[in-house]
Design brief:
The chain is of the alpha+beta class. It contains 25 helices and 34 strands.
Length: about 900
């Protein structure tokens, strides 16, 4: 039996049919192992040794593959034909060798660009070994991404609370979005005017001409600056004689576009189908892996992660046959068109994205495909076929007019347009147009036949007001295009990079445009201030070039890692020593124009509007950055950053809005905006009593909030009713983890905000019962290990997952696990020592708890004598040892800092 490994179940099913009963095709479901998300997975001190873990969901797959391979005749690794596919095959081979499952089994690597029978059978004849340099390039990329992420992100967390992560490519993509927003904000709008005349020929055919010359001087875009000047020119030429002085006709050709690469496919799918980059790749994946066509699963397009634009000769020949059959011989290009990408650092290792069989017309395939699949297949087919079609032939015409104005000046106007003489490839396909290309479209308008000496009748003369516009915000498509031009990222990373920016709340998408959130701008400003080199476009592109050289076997990947790490670790070390105030001072300066916009009256943008004397500046709190007054605590003014988006939406424009009075207390109900978002408040601020407040949860729009809804929020949590079994009230409210039900210390999760306000008793009882069956929802992270009841106090001792790692919980005491101690290995004895140490540090009373001093023990240079680490391996009680303190010194706990 021959075992074939591919990446997806759909592909496995299709290929099994092609290969027959002598083959068993198994899916790996992508990567089977990865670097664990913890410190030490890449160790620079051990020559960048990398520790790999089989992920939980992959353990079963690995077990199935191992079982199948043992005793097999041959193992054929047939993962995707790119760097990631090569890495998956390498990982599987490493695992199987470690498990000693390859004894007597021949191992081969095959790669194919399309899931068709012909492509599969051809690949099987051309087996090879795993490409070592390609794997090295993967290892270098993975190590670089890990080292940047796991060393830069913690610096962000400490210096900028609320910031989530930084990444080698992610942060540069974010900088592109933020830099564009800065350009837009700094842009100064200029007014300008144009003069257009609508004229008519003797046959009453319309011609539009624009003023281009005044008194022999060519008119520049901004020369006519105001309405008075424009109207004076309009008056001067109205009712005058419009004579054509020359007509210039020029034959030109327009050539077809190259077949799709990953990035151009994403751009065109965005323009024509409205797909996001992620959606485009998901649909393309399904077309590549195959769809059911008449009872047989067939791949319709070639591999969709590519920066190559070439097509293999046999496919080109088939495309040219299709063109002749579909249109005529005239529409076939007179020679085979060859394309070369202009993208920086393009590898062009694979074909362009094309139909696997050009004879499968989109019309015939539509009945087998879902709507989005049919739309994308139609795009791919038309683009590939059009690439071998004849050029379009056009005749471009420019007519010049002379007009003698009433003011004695001579004016010149120009009318431009074009006529399609032969449509060529345009009969099948034209690329989508962005709004920025509208002006070019205007110049392509058709003109009637015109000759020198013709005098046209005036229908209308119009003066039009215009304003210069800033550069447009990036869409996903244009950002991918810009990244490709700069050589940042690779085809396989574009979609995931954009998805991360949105998941981290660094950017939002409005009307298909990427707008940086304040959090994203803050992270970018921080990185540009303290890690400028690592968000430079040239530096990131340079690293990509080195990775390509590794792929070609021209560079050793560890040499690249050493060079990078030497400078990077120094930059991280310097930034770690910075005080938060130094960081804030730098960010106040960099982000000043954004967060402190100059008011309309031209006053001091940093002057506090509440106390009138304090200066506003950037501050950080537990949940992120905000703007606060220098006179704190006397002045408690705070606000979020200035909105990055356009005016409007559901933002609270003022710091305080009165919604009405509470009928019970007579106090005003206020809608306010704080550092953590909008909230409602009962009564004004008071030094004596803190007024009741309630955050506005998701599902409520602050701008449309009325008095009734505000009073409802202030009354939460509300009593749903008495539980029929216990007669204890069931409460509904909003908590740290969203809307919830609470009954006798047990919790149930609600779906949304409306449930909190409207849920009835019967449904509440049912939700709590379901929660009990699955284990009551705990107000904290996932339980990783239940150690049982505390031996001397009430309550369980558990190990839970938290935002900053695993921790031990008993009652209200939470103690972080030290580095190197895994949750699964922790014993009750070790957990009790951590709890005792934490309780002693916090000064909390505890019954029968050990004193921190009792855990003290002389620490060896390598830290091996830590009682926590020792106890993690054994349930035996570790004897406490004491070391007499030197004169003037305090006794010191040997527990790691995380456990103190």
């Amino acid at each position: 039996m021959n075992i074939v490994i591919v990446e997806s179940a759909a592909k496995a099913k299709t290929i099994n049919k092609y290969l027959g009963s002598d083959y068993k095709v198994i899916a790996s479901y992508g990567h089977v192992r990865d670097l664990p998300a913890k410190d030490g997975s890449v160790d620079p001190d051990k020559d960048f040794a990398m520790l790999w873990d089989v992920e939980g969901s992959s353990a079963k797959v690995v077990s199935e593959i191992t079982k199948a391979v043992k005793g097999a005749d041959k193992l054929i690794l047939a993962t995707d034909p790119d760097r990631e596919g090569e890495a998956i095959s390498w990982h599987l081979l490493q695992i199987l060798e470690e498990k000693r499952a390859l004894k007597g089994v021949k191992v081969e690597r095959v790669a194919f660009n399309a899931v068709t029978k012909q492509a599969i059978m051809e690949a099987m004849k051309n087996a090879r070994q795993i490409d070592g340099p390609l794997v090295d390039a993967y290892l270098a990329r993975r190590a670089l991404d890990y080292l940047v992420g796991f060393n830069l992100s913690p610096v962000l967390w400490r210096k900028l609370p609320g910031a989530k992560s930084a990444g080698r490519v992610q942060s540069v993509a974010l900088r592109l979005v933020c830099d564009r927003e800065t350009e837009i904000e700094a842009f100064k709008t200029d007014e300008y005017w144009t003069i257009e005349a609508l004229l008519a020929t003797a046959k009453n055919e319309d011609v539009r001409a624009r003023l281009t010359v005044i008194a022999g001087q060519n008119l520049k875009k901004l020369d006519i600056k105001d309405a008075a000047s424009a109207n004076a020119i309009k008056s001067a030429i109205q009712g005058q004689r419009f004579e054509i002085t020359s007509v210039d006709k020029k034959a030109m050709k327009r050539n077809p576009y190259a077949p799709f690469t990953t990035s151009t496919l994403q751009q065109e799918a965005s323009r024509k189908l409205g797909f996001s980059a992620k959606q485009t790749m998901q649909v393309a994946q399904r077309l590549y892996e195959g769809v059911d066509i008449g009872g047989e699963t067939t791949g319709l397009i070639t591999y969709m992660r590519t920066d190559g634009v070439q097509i293999v000769p046999e496919a080109v020949a088939e495309i040219r046959k299709v063109i002749e059959g579909e249109f005529s011989r005239r529409y076939v290009a007179p020679f085979v068109r060859e394309y070369k990408t202009k993208a920086k650092n393009a590898q062009e290792a694979h074909e362009a994205v094309r139909p696997t069989d050009p004879a499968r017309h989109p019309r015939a395939m539509a009945k087998y495909l879902q709507k989005d699949q049919a739309g994308l297949y139609d795009l791919v087919w038309k683009r590939a076929v059009a690439s071998q079609m004849a050029s379009a032939e056009l005749e471009q015409t420019a007519a010049e007019f002379d007009v003698k104005g009433r003011d004695g000046k001579k004016y010149g106007l120009r009318a431009t347009g074009s006529i399609v003489v032969f449509d060529g490839f345009m009969k099948l396909y034209e690329e989508g147009r962005d709004a920025a290309q509208a002006e070019e479209d205007e110049e392509s308008r058709r003109l009637p036949p015109l000759s020198a000496g013709d005098v046209l009748d005036e229908k209308n003369v119009e003066a039009k007001q215009h304003f210069t516009e800033p550069p447009p915000r990036f869409s996903e498509a244009t950002l991918v295009k810009r990244m490709e031009e700069l050589g940042i990222g690779r085809p396989s990373t574009y979609a995931s990079t954009l998805a991360v920016l949105q998941e981290r709340d660094y950017v939002e998408i409005d009307k298909k445009r990427l707008i940086p959130e304040d959090k994203g701008r803050l992270v970018t400003a921080f990185l540009q201030s303290f890690f400028a080199r690592y968000v430079e476009y040239d530096f990131t592109a340079g690293l990509e070039e080195k990775l390509d050289l590794i792929s070609d076997g021209k560079l050793a990947y560890k040499d690249v890692l050493r060079d990078f790490w030497c400078d990077f670790t120094a930059a991280v070390g310097e930034t770690k020593e910075l005080r938060v105030t130094q960081v804030l001072d730098a960010l106040n300066e960099v982000m000043g124009p954004h967060i402190f916009p100059v008011p309309a009256d031209g006053g001091d943008p940093r002057k506090c509007t509440t106390c009138g004397t304090g200066q506003l500046s950037l501050k950080t709190g537990r949940f992120g950055a905000f703007i606060g007054c220098s006179n704190y605590p006397d002045c408690r003014f705070t606000r979020q950053f200035k909105s990055s988006g356009e005016e409007g939406g559901d933002q609270v424009k003022a710091d305080k809005t009165v919604l009405g009075d509470d009928p019970k207390t007579g106090l005003p109900v206020l809608l306010r905006s704080g550092r953590f978002g909008p909230y409602v408040q009962l009564g004004e601020d008071s030094k004596d009593d803190k007024p009741k407040r309630s955050s506005i949860p998701k599902g409520f729009e602050a701008a449309t909030l009325d008095l009734e809804k505000a009073l409802t929020l202030l009354s939460l949590p509300r009593i749903v009713g008495l539980h029929p079994e216990t007669s204890i009230p069931i409460m509904a409210g909003f908590g740290k983890f969203g809307p919830f039900l609470e009954h006798d210390g047990k919790y149930g999760k609600l779906e949304g905000a409306e449930d909190v306000l409207n849920i009835g008793l019967n449904r509440a009882v049912s939700i709590l019962a379901d929660a009990k069956k699955g284990g009551a929802i705990k107000r904290g992270g996932e339980v990783l290990k239940d150690l049982g009841d505390h031996p001397s106090e009430k309550g369980k001792v558990e190990v839970l997952s938290g935002k900053y790692g695993a921790y031990v919980k008993h009652g209200k005491i939470n103690a972080t696990l030290p580095k190197g101690v895994e949750a699964a290995d922790l014993t009750m004895q070790a957990a009790l020592e951590l709890i005792a140490a934490k309780a002693g540090k916090d000064g909390k009373p505890g019954k029968g708890k050990a004193k921190p001093k009792a855990a003290a023990k002389e620490k060896s240079p390598n830290g091996k004598n830590s009682p926590v680490k020792a106890a993690a391996k054994s349930d035996k009680k570790v004897p406490a040892k004491k070391k007499a303190p030197t004169k003037g010194a305090k006794a010191k706990s040997n527990l790691p800092k995380a456990a103190e």
